[in-house]
Amino acid sequence: MKKTIVGITVVGKDREGVVAQFTNFVFQKKGNVEKVNQNVIKGLFGMYLEVSFTSKINFKQLDSGLKKLGKKLRMEVSTHYETNSEKNIGIFVTKEQHCLKEILSARRAIRGKISVIIGTERALAPLAKKAKIPFVVVEERNQEKAEEKLLKICKKFQIDLIVLARYMRILTSNFVWRYPNRIINIHPSLLPAFPGSLAYA
Protein backbone atom coordinates (compact mmCIF):
# COMPACT_ATOMS: atom_id res chain seq x y z
CA MET A 1 0.00 0.00 0.00
CA LYS A 2 1.32 3.44 -0.96
CA LYS A 3 2.43 5.62 1.94
CA THR A 4 2.40 9.40 2.21
CA ILE A 5 5.36 10.69 4.21
CA VAL A 6 5.01 13.92 6.18
CA GLY A 7 7.84 15.65 8.04
CA ILE A 8 6.79 17.72 11.06
CA THR A 9 9.16 20.14 12.78
CA VAL A 10 8.43 21.65 16.19
CA VAL A 11 10.61 24.41 17.69
CA GLY A 12 10.12 26.49 20.83
CA LYS A 13 10.85 26.95 24.51
CA ASP A 14 11.32 23.59 26.22
CA ARG A 15 8.35 22.35 28.23
CA GLU A 16 6.93 19.02 29.41
CA GLY A 17 4.52 16.94 27.37
CA VAL A 18 5.29 18.29 23.90
CA VAL A 19 6.37 14.97 22.38
CA ALA A 20 3.37 13.13 23.83
CA GLN A 21 0.83 15.66 22.59
CA PHE A 22 2.16 15.73 19.03
CA THR A 23 2.49 11.95 18.74
CA ASN A 24 -1.03 11.51 20.15
CA PHE A 25 -2.30 13.98 17.57
CA VAL A 26 -0.68 11.91 14.81
CA PHE A 27 -2.22 8.67 16.12
CA GLN A 28 -5.66 10.30 16.24
CA LYS A 29 -5.23 11.16 12.55
CA LYS A 30 -4.39 7.48 11.85
CA GLY A 31 -0.75 8.25 11.18
CA ASN A 32 2.26 6.13 12.07
CA VAL A 33 5.33 7.75 13.63
CA GLU A 34 8.33 6.28 11.82
CA LYS A 35 11.05 8.53 13.19
CA VAL A 36 11.42 10.89 16.15
CA ASN A 37 14.42 13.12 16.76
CA GLN A 38 14.35 15.60 19.62
CA ASN A 39 16.94 17.89 21.18
CA VAL A 40 17.13 20.58 23.84
CA ILE A 41 19.92 23.17 23.74
CA LYS A 42 19.96 26.07 26.21
CA GLY A 43 16.24 25.79 26.83
CA LEU A 44 15.36 25.61 23.12
CA PHE A 45 13.36 22.51 22.18
CA GLY A 46 13.52 21.06 18.69
CA MET A 47 11.75 17.97 17.38
CA TYR A 48 11.42 16.30 14.00
CA LEU A 49 8.69 13.73 13.43
CA GLU A 50 8.58 11.62 10.30
CA VAL A 51 5.04 10.34 9.93
CA SER A 52 3.43 8.03 7.38
CA PHE A 53 -0.20 7.73 6.32
CA THR A 54 -1.61 4.84 4.32
CA SER A 55 -5.08 6.34 4.02
CA LYS A 56 -5.95 9.51 2.14
CA ILE A 57 -5.35 12.64 4.22
CA ASN A 58 -6.52 16.22 3.98
CA PHE A 59 -3.30 18.25 4.06
CA LYS A 60 -5.05 21.52 4.93
CA GLN A 61 -6.83 19.97 7.91
CA LEU A 62 -3.61 18.31 9.07
CA ASP A 63 -1.68 21.60 8.84
CA SER A 64 -4.46 23.49 10.61
CA GLY A 65 -4.64 20.95 13.44
CA LEU A 66 -0.88 20.91 13.95
CA LYS A 67 -0.63 24.69 14.02
CA LYS A 68 -3.54 24.90 16.45
CA LEU A 69 -1.74 22.47 18.76
CA GLY A 70 1.49 24.42 18.29
CA LYS A 71 -0.23 27.65 19.26
CA LYS A 72 -1.62 26.00 22.38
CA LEU A 73 1.87 24.82 23.39
CA ARG A 74 3.57 28.04 22.20
CA MET A 75 5.59 26.11 19.65
CA GLU A 76 6.35 26.94 16.02
CA VAL A 77 5.22 24.08 13.78
CA SER A 78 5.85 23.45 10.10
CA THR A 79 5.16 20.52 7.79
CA HIS A 80 7.00 19.19 4.77
CA TYR A 81 5.45 16.75 2.31
CA GLU A 82 7.52 14.35 0.23
CA THR A 83 6.07 14.61 -3.25
CA ASN A 84 7.33 14.10 -6.79
CA SER A 85 6.90 17.78 -7.56
CA GLU A 86 9.87 20.00 -8.38
CA LYS A 87 11.76 21.11 -5.27
CA ASN A 88 12.50 24.78 -4.57
CA ILE A 89 16.18 25.27 -3.76
CA GLY A 90 17.73 28.16 -1.84
CA ILE A 91 21.49 28.74 -2.12
CA PHE A 92 23.34 30.51 0.70
CA VAL A 93 26.62 32.23 -0.27
CA THR A 94 29.18 34.74 0.98
CA LYS A 95 31.74 36.04 -1.54
CA GLU A 96 33.70 33.08 -2.94
CA GLN A 97 32.20 32.23 -6.31
CA HIS A 98 33.55 28.80 -7.31
CA CYS A 99 30.83 26.75 -5.55
CA LEU A 100 28.00 28.88 -6.91
CA LYS A 101 29.46 28.82 -10.43
CA GLU A 102 29.66 25.02 -10.33
CA ILE A 103 26.02 24.75 -9.28
CA LEU A 104 24.79 27.23 -11.88
CA SER A 105 26.74 25.51 -14.66
CA ALA A 106 25.09 22.19 -13.75
CA ARG A 107 21.59 23.43 -12.94
CA ARG A 108 19.97 21.77 -15.96
CA ALA A 109 20.90 18.43 -14.41
CA ILE A 110 19.47 19.36 -11.00
CA ARG A 111 16.07 17.91 -10.17
CA GLY A 112 14.75 21.13 -8.75
CA LYS A 113 14.47 24.87 -9.26
CA ILE A 114 16.96 27.35 -7.81
CA SER A 115 14.41 29.84 -6.51
CA VAL A 116 16.67 32.28 -4.66
CA ILE A 117 20.31 32.97 -3.84
CA ILE A 118 20.94 34.57 -0.44
CA GLY A 119 24.24 36.29 0.28
CA THR A 120 25.86 37.85 3.32
CA GLU A 121 27.13 40.55 0.94
CA ARG A 122 26.55 41.66 -2.67
CA ALA A 123 29.70 40.16 -4.20
CA LEU A 124 27.89 37.36 -6.05
CA ALA A 125 24.83 39.36 -7.12
CA PRO A 126 26.13 39.65 -10.74
CA LEU A 127 26.25 35.84 -11.07
CA ALA A 128 22.65 35.58 -9.86
CA LYS A 129 21.56 38.37 -12.21
CA LYS A 130 23.21 36.66 -15.19
CA ALA A 131 21.39 33.43 -14.29
CA LYS A 132 18.11 35.37 -13.81
CA ILE A 133 17.72 34.15 -10.24
CA PRO A 134 16.56 36.46 -7.41
CA PHE A 135 19.41 37.56 -5.13
CA VAL A 136 18.72 38.73 -1.58
CA VAL A 137 21.32 40.19 0.78
CA VAL A 138 21.22 39.57 4.53
CA GLU A 139 24.02 41.70 5.94
CA GLU A 140 22.81 41.60 9.56
CA ARG A 141 25.79 40.75 11.80
CA ASN A 142 23.66 39.65 14.74
CA GLN A 143 23.09 35.95 14.03
CA GLU A 144 19.68 35.77 15.68
CA LYS A 145 18.36 38.68 13.62
CA ALA A 146 20.06 37.37 10.48
CA GLU A 147 18.36 33.99 10.87
CA GLU A 148 14.97 35.63 11.39
CA LYS A 149 15.43 37.27 7.98
CA LEU A 150 16.68 34.03 6.42
CA LEU A 151 13.62 32.15 7.66
CA LYS A 152 11.28 34.80 6.24
CA ILE A 153 13.02 34.64 2.85
CA CYS A 154 12.89 30.83 2.80
CA LYS A 155 9.20 30.94 3.67
CA LYS A 156 8.50 33.53 0.96
CA PHE A 157 10.17 31.38 -1.71
CA GLN A 158 8.75 28.12 -0.25
CA ILE A 159 12.21 26.59 0.00
CA ASP A 160 12.40 22.79 0.25
CA LEU A 161 16.19 22.37 0.18
CA ILE A 162 18.99 24.69 1.35
CA VAL A 163 22.47 24.49 -0.18
CA LEU A 164 25.40 26.11 1.62
CA ALA A 165 27.81 27.08 -1.17
CA ARG A 166 30.84 28.47 0.67
CA TYR A 167 28.51 30.14 3.13
CA MET A 168 30.81 31.46 5.84
CA ARG A 169 28.37 31.77 8.75
CA ILE A 170 27.50 29.15 11.36
CA LEU A 171 23.77 28.45 11.48
CA THR A 172 22.32 27.88 14.94
CA SER A 173 20.05 25.07 16.12
CA ASN A 174 17.11 27.47 15.94
CA PHE A 175 17.53 27.57 12.16
CA VAL A 176 18.81 24.08 11.40
CA TRP A 177 16.02 22.31 13.32
CA ARG A 178 13.47 23.91 10.99
CA TYR A 179 15.02 22.19 7.96
CA PRO A 180 15.88 18.67 9.17
CA ASN A 181 17.64 16.59 6.51
CA ARG A 182 17.16 19.43 4.05
CA ILE A 183 20.42 21.38 4.39
CA ILE A 184 23.59 20.39 2.53
CA ASN A 185 27.05 21.95 2.70
CA ILE A 186 28.69 21.39 -0.68
CA HIS A 187 31.94 23.31 -0.14
CA PRO A 188 34.09 20.39 1.12
CA SER A 189 33.02 18.20 -1.82
CA LEU A 190 34.31 20.81 -4.29
CA LEU A 191 37.75 21.26 -2.73
CA PRO A 192 40.61 20.48 -5.15
CA ALA A 193 42.80 17.44 -4.50
CA PHE A 194 45.69 19.64 -3.34
CA PRO A 195 44.09 22.79 -1.93
CA GLY A 196 47.18 24.23 -0.25
CA SER A 197 47.35 26.04 3.07
CA LEU A 198 44.19 28.13 2.66
CA ALA A 199 41.66 25.30 2.47
CA TYR A 200 38.90 25.79 5.01
CA ALA A 201 35.16 25.20 5.13
Automatic annotation (TrEMBL):
An example GO biological process term is:
one-carbon metabolic process
Q: Carries keyword rRNA processing?
A: no
> Per the record, a Pfam family?
Formyl_trans_N
Molecular function (GO) terms for this protein are: formyltetrahydrofolate deformylase activity
Boundaries of each ACT domain copy? 7-84
Q: Which Gene3D superfamilies match?
A: 3.30.70.260, Formyl transferase, N-terminal domain (3.40.50.170)
Keywords assigned by UniProt, alphabetized: Hydrolase, One-carbon metabolism
Q: What is this protein called?
A: ACT domain-containing protein
Native organism taxonomy: unclassified sequences, metagenomes, ecological metagenomes
